[in-house]
Amino acid sequence: MLIKKNLSERDICTKFITPAIEQSGWKDKFLEEVSFTDGRIYVRGKMTARGKAKRADYILYYKPNIPVAIVEAKDNRHALGDGMQQALEYARILDIPCVFASNGDGFLFHDRTATDDSIEQELSLDEFPSPDELWRRYKQYKGIETSAEELVSLQDYYVDTAGRRPRYYQQIAINRTVEAIAKGQNRMLLVMATGTGKTYTAFQIIYRLWKSGFKKRILFLADRTALIDQTRRGDFRHFRDKMTVIRKKVLTVDGKEQLVASRKRGIDATDKAYEIFLGLYQGLTNAEGLDAFRDFSPDFFDLIVVDECHRGSADDNSAWREILTYFRTATQIGLTATPKETADVSTSEYFGDPIYTYSLRQGIDDGFLAPYRVVRVGLNVDLEGWRPERGKKDKRGLPVEDRIYNRLDFDRNIVVEERRMLVAQKITEFLKGHNRFMKTIVFCVDIEHAEGMRSALARQNADLVRQNSKYVMRITGDEEEGKRELDNFINPEERYPVIACTSKLMTTGVDAQTCQLIVLDTNIQSMTEFKQIIGRGTRINEEFGKLYFTIFDFRNVTDLFADPAFDGDPVRVKLVDDDGDVANIEDEEEADTAPLTDADTGDTLTPEPPKIRYLIDDADPLAQEDRKVFVNGIDVTVLNSRELIFDTDGKAVLVGLKDYTRDRFRQKFQSMDAFMTYWNATDRKQAIVQELTEQNVLLDSFIEAVDKDADLFDLICHVAFDQKPLTRKERAEQVKKRDYFARYGPAARAVLEALLDKYADEGIMLIEDVKVLQVRPFDQFGSPVEIVNKTFGGKIAYLRAVRELEQEIYSASA
């Protein structure tokens, strides 16, 4: 006889929940075990591990990509509604109105559309609602009222033959936008972090509105040729012969370009035969008032999508706004990763509050965007300033103005050649310690600075430049050769260029999937620009081993992390002093023996090295050079002036690390006895590490700074209570001298001695984890199961022996 409570969750789904759903008319309209995130990437040193993906047991779709319900299943040993809290959290994330939990006996139904006490009710297995019933509730939830609105809202997505499906957040953005437009909304804003597929999202929105016939002529507006080209060749290629790029037609007369068109503005009748238009706003406007866009009637376009709308359309006086105002009858959608809100410019004032926001933090947490670490390098001339000695002359023999120059001056008003060489040296040190063919973007003050850094990096990497002169290149708006190499730089299949020196050209719209190093040697005060630059590194490419990236900050730009508007903190901030080895900055992290845990599940993760597939702008730079003062013969070094500590909230603490850590310990433990009681009462020391970390005790940083060989217990006693610390090896030797293992038989003694050696090498947290029995030298004693059951008589006895070994380790007085 089948005993229901003995069945697994999967059996409950197969025998009870799935049949109940199918019998209500949902056959072929639902998916099971839907993983809707990829799992956050955790970084330790040069190794990474993915956390657990979020997974829904069932998602029900009225039509493909239009989810209306979610079901969370549990086995029959759980109560009917035990899965409801998790289901509600997933429903909130996925924007789904109808939520069910089940243990196989029936369903608990939570209706997010309800306005009265009917918000939750129990249903029998044969009472599961039909598709039409849940679609009715979905329309109520979304405010879809008329048949015309429903028709547009149900328009199919474009189905890619390659099998590409929108991610959950893209699905939400697409559905909300299409539904809002169907209901008559004419201005809307989508905020999606760089690297999360804004262009693909825009394509699906445009496709559904166009295919439904609701919007017949559509303009996609951008401000960079690279963006238009990427869009045309990428997601929008599916529009085929229905799409064109608007280009002004010109005729050269007496060496001057003149517009050629029916109304002398550059657009002729053949351009108007298309349905999907891609336009560069510079190509639609003219300084002399001969605006090409006026060759179209004001009501020509039904829909305008503005890419990177923060850059111009939010400004009342911009050329963008002039175009949007002219086509004011068209529905207008703004896309951006970084909405701009200043005294003069407001993205939301024009487009309205975002209809949906998917942030950098969300992208990193979901595992769709790469996490990053920050390396701060403070140079003496930047932090202390530089004042020329009496009679100092520049390279042209002219006297240098006597004043204090700081980081805002360097490379804008005055060029210190030694500073540039030191920056290039530090970048090269990092590449030599990692991968010299790691794609790198160096953001500079202006075009002249970009050229100067190209030259300095070429000298630092002369061996590779001799092999291929394109190893390092300047890619700026004024230089055609460099611009031609931009596509090669962002192409993962192309090895060269490796290092791109730029100023403004590459801040946005560059899909650099394999960029693993971003160097900030320019002064950035705009949060919008800062987020855009970070976005150059956030894309993931697992095939080429790109799972995280590093930011090198020479100008304290990462102070912007403290801004409340910033929403994606780094995994680590490392301050490099005069002796700092940037080639091996990860070694300190890899020496950390504490288990790496998934923040969502608490599961222990095993980091591994990425699997790498290796491969066999703005103004006249001469004019910039003329207005700068060039000096040399200056002593420029990496300055060790102060210790800058960041707590776990990302806030800077301007005190010594030891003092800061002592204060944090003393807040929790008033005396040595209090700490000893706490330490001995805690079965797993990892729990202590987690609790202290949550309270902003910077254990990792402190261990790195004081003594990586000392035991965690001793370090805490040393810093908080001035006790002399012992190393792990010293503690292990004291245990051996006391002949502690004599009480055990030969087999158990061998295992415990090996555990003690592991403790001496790697720390207490390692031996607390039963998984340690899977590695050498324990494999010579048998399998983990054999060691636990045969040698110690079961798991409880084994854990008791480990616990007693820990007590023996710490019975030695510090």
Automatic annotation (TrEMBL):
Stored Pfam families: EcoEI_R_C (PF08463), Helicase_C (PF00271), HSDR_N_2 (PF13588), ResIII (PF04851)
Assigned GO CC terms: cytosol
Region annotation (Disordered) ranges: 584-604
Molecular function (Gene Ontology), one example: type I site-specific deoxyribonuclease activity
CDD domains in the cross-refs: DEXHc_RE_I_III_res (cd18032), SF2_C_EcoAI-like (cd18799)
InterPro entries the UniProt entry points to: EcoEI_R_C_dom, Helicase/UvrB_N, Helicase_ATP-bd, Helicase_C-like, Helicase_Restrict-Modif_Enz, HSDR_N, P-loop_NTPase
GO biological process: DNA restriction-modification system
Ranges annotated as spanning the membrane: none
Record domain Helicase ATP-binding: where: 179-357
Annotated keywords: Endonuclease, Hydrolase, Nuclease
NCBIfam families given in the database record: restrict_EcoAI
Protein name from the UniProt record: Restriction endonuclease
Origin species: Spirosoma montaniterrae
